[in-house]
Design goal:
With about 375 residues, the protein is of the alpha/beta class. Strand 5, helix 7 and strand 6 form a beta-alpha-beta unit.
């Protein structure tokens, strides 16, 4: 098996699994309990929170543990909408967001909110000027993803957040795809809120985090015992939180070395495919793109059919959650890609375990599969 679908999910790192194990077998206490097992659980939970904070460059009380990126995004959009509904009911986002943003925004539209979905250019980039033109007196939130899960295009977040601050508007970014692949410090980005998804960065599925800048209050969408500063009630999942913390610690120590290695593998993969299939088209920004992501189309073909011919290769035809359909990706549609080109898209994303041998084998298999489909 050759796995090139790291944008869909990552394996749990060995160090992460080892860090989690004591909380599966021994330290099972409830962090809210007063006895010694509870105290040990609370200490581990806060240590994990500190590890997340160290990676993002924020304070401990600015991190809320959640059940994943989708929950974090729902918390932001619904929480801000409910909290600031007397101030305004207008939200700005883009046409290329993850479904957890898009569908939550559409839910708010059904509940008498107004959402502007901004266009992107041919590289999948939203222009700050488009954001500026969309701002209204009743705008309460701007949310733009840091890096797209399909194309890997990195958005000008710092510039957009500056515009939001000028107008006193809260700014959120979904950083699920960027954390662990590029530097993602909240101070550099200038964001008020930021989403983390554990399974994208070698932590378990079912855990995430939400950065909420100090001083910002949002209405919780879960009510109960008041855990996580009252914003995410429910007994904390110690096992998964510890795993997320350890994964963040590993990123902080390895990112500077990993970025050039991963980029070299991605470019090696592209060069081999492009030399054999020169008509192939790469989607996304040529420079401002995640170092691991290659979203490439083979015009006149169907990406799903290509991958069916390579059972040993794990990859996607777009966002993984859309793999059961052959409709044109909403991201490619927003970029103005024609159906003839876009239907032949295959997303290849390398990761920490990827090797040159795997990349070379994948390139060979893809080229063979494409040649079989070619008329």
């Amino acid at each position: 098996m050759i796995y090139l679908d790291y944008n869909a999910t990552t394996p749990i790192a060995q160090e992460v699994a080892e860090a989690m194990m004591p909380y599966i077998t021994e330290d099972f206490g409830n962090p809210s309990s007063a006895h010694f097992l509870g105290a040990r659980a609370r200490e581990a939970l806060e240590n994990a929170r500190e590890q997340v904070c160290n990676l993002l460059g924020c304070d401990r009380d600015e991190i809320i543990f959640t059940g994943g990126g989708t929950e974090s995004n729902n918390m932001v959009l619904k929480g801000v909408a409910w909290t600031l509904r007397e101030k305004g009911r207008h939200i700005i986002t883009t046409r290329i967001e993850h479904p957890s943003i898009m569908n939550t925004a559409l839910f708010l539209v059904d509940n008498e909110y107004d959402v502007t979905f901004l266009p992107v250019d041919e590289f999948g980039t939203v222009a700050p000027d488009e954001v500026k033109r969309a701002v209204r007196g009743d705008t309460i939130l701007i949310t733009v993803m840091h890096a797209n899960n399909e194309t890997g295009t990195i958005q000008p977040i710092a510039e957009i957040s500056g515009l939001a601050k000028e107008h006193g508007i809260l700014f959120h970014t979904d950083a699920a795809q960027s954390i662990g692949k590029i530097d993602t410090r909240v101070g550099d980005l200038g964001v008020d809120l930021l989403t983390v998804a554990g399974h994208k960065l070698y932590a378990p599925k079912g855990v995430g985090a939400l950065y909420i800048r100090k001083g910002i209050e949002i209405e919780p969408i879960l009510h109960g015992g008041g855990q996580e500063r009252g914003l995410r009630s429910g007994t904390e999942n110690m096992i998964l939180s510890v795993g997320l913390g350890k994964a963040c610690e590993l990123i902080q120590g390895n990112l500077s070395n990993e970025i050039p290695r991963i980029k070299k593998l991605r470019d090696r993969l592209y060069e081999q495919i492009a030399s054999a299939v020169p008509e192939a088209v790469v989607h996304g920004h040529p420079e401002q793109r995640l170092p691991n992501t290659l979203f490439i189309s083979f015009p006149g073909m169907v990406g799903e059919e290509i991958l069916k011919g390579i059972p040993d290769l794990c990859a996607s035809t777009g966002a993984a959650c859309h793999d059961q359909t052959v409709s044109l990706s909403h991201v490619l549609g927003a970029m103005g890609v024609t159906k003839e080109v876009g239907m032949g898209a295959v997303r290849l994303s390398v990761g920490r375990p990827s090797t040159e041998d795997e990349v070379d084998q994948a390139a060979r298999l893809i080229i063979e599969a494409v040649n079989k489909v070619l008329p």
